[in-house]
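Tutorial, part two.
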Amino acid sequence: MSSVAQLNKKSPAKPVVDFRAHAESDATLMRRSGRAMGAIAGLIGENLSRLDIEDDSDFLTPSALSGLLEAVQLLADQLAERGEDLGEIIAAGSV
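Running the prediction step on this input gives:
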């Protein structure tokens, strides 16, 4: 192949990252996660208050508390994953 032909040959294009779509999706996740964690914190706080005031009567069962903690862990995992994705987009220079 001639040197002119090599110069005219285009390099493979980088995949186009739709940063706006990522940002909108991340913003939605963050809003929903914030509301969910606020609700969970409120329920756990209510449970602790009732334990102090009402002679050790549980508001939430151990199973319910376990489920709430699992929900917090799922939210934390999703937020961490989205943060890593955003970091990769920024590092790739797509922003």
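The mean pLDDT is 82. In part three we will examine how such features are distributed along the chain.
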